[in-house]
Amino acid sequence: MTFTIGSNTPVARDTFRIVLRTDAEISVRSGQFVEIGLDGYYLRRPISISDSLPDGVILYYKVVGEGTRLISRMKEGETLELLLPLGKGFNPEACASKALLIGGGIGSAPLYLLAKELLNQGKEVTVVLGFNKADEICLRDEFQSLGIPVHIATMDGSVGTKGFVTDAIDQVGPEFDRFYTCGPLPMMKAVRSALSAPGEMSLEERMGCGAGFCYGCSVQTTKGPKRVCADGPVFDKEDLLW
Ligand SMILES: Cc1cc2nc3c(=O)[nH]c(=O)nc-3n(C[C@H](O)[C@H](O)[C@H](O)COP(=O)(O)OP(=O)(O)OC[C@H]3O[C@@H](n4cnc5c(N)ncnc54)[C@H](O)[C@@H]3O)c2cc1C
Ligand code: FES
User: pTM of the entire structure?
Assistant: First the structure.
């Protein structure tokens, strides 16, 4: 499906927010992702959906290699080919009344749409976001504009709690019956062992087809091998063999 870039703006160090619109109605849920096709590159780039528009999506991406650098140079009015919506998303319905959302770096992006879904269902939401340094912080203002508490942890202590998201959670002591997390693997492993409540974790794997055919993104779970692109990327904490 062809999407036109509405804006493509730097929002933090090496981090961009891109608004993409098409000429059809779009229906997505939090935790799902898109695959962006790029001229001259065989493999598409998977990026989580951060917010949905009636006719489009908003994504946040970090420039880490050739593909994301190419996208960062694209201008308003240029077009991108997207496959969407891909994967199974978060399950906000599983939260009884109070949710804790834990994002690490660019992994904070898919939690924004999740926060909106939880609020629409009348649930209370607390957000904890972790970054290395102040200049990497993104999405804080967007979460705050939803009127929910947002706690930041930075490794260098330049903003919020000094240390990991788990340090901020210890400090804040939020009440919650279910947590949802997305971020670097070591962070999610630390979160999983620190929190006894049930939770959902969004995984990242290198992808081939991105659509469930090649099994290139398989991970072992308590229920056997599962494809991150089609069975995930969101998995229940209990299903992961960490
Ligand atoms: C389900 C999912 C959701 C993601 N959501 C986001 C997001 O919201 N924002 C964001 O900035 N990044 C996200 N990523 C990571 C993003 O896909 C990679 O950073 C990106 O593909 C790198 O492309 P590149 O060409 O710049 O880097 P290169 O290293 O040049 O890419 C080479 C190849 O490796 C793949 N690749 C590289 N890094 C990753 C990675 N970490 N995960 C999966 N494939 C990778 C690329 O897709 C490409 O096929 C997500 C990954 C997955 C699997
Ligand atoms: S990337 Fe091909 S099955 Fe997941």
Answer: 0.97
pLDDT tens-place string over residues 55-70 = 999 999 999 999 999 9
Q: Give residue 173's region: left, alpha or beta (phi > 0; psi -120 to 50).
A: left
Atom of ligand 2 nearest to the CA of 213: 3
Looking at all shown ligands, the one closest to residue 210's CA atom is: 2
Q: What is the distance between the alpha carbons of residues 179 and 168, in angstroms, rounded to a whole number?
A: 14
Q: What is 92-202's CATH topology?
A: Rossmann fold (3.40.50)
> What is the third-level CATH fold of 2-86?
Elongation Factor Tu (Ef-tu); domain 3 (2.40.30)
Cβ distance 179 to 190 under 8 Å? no
The predicted-structure confidence for 61-106, as pLDDT tens digits, reads as follows 999 999 999 999 999 999 999 999 999 999 999 999 999 999 999 9
Cβ–ligand 1 contact at 207 (below 6 Å): yes
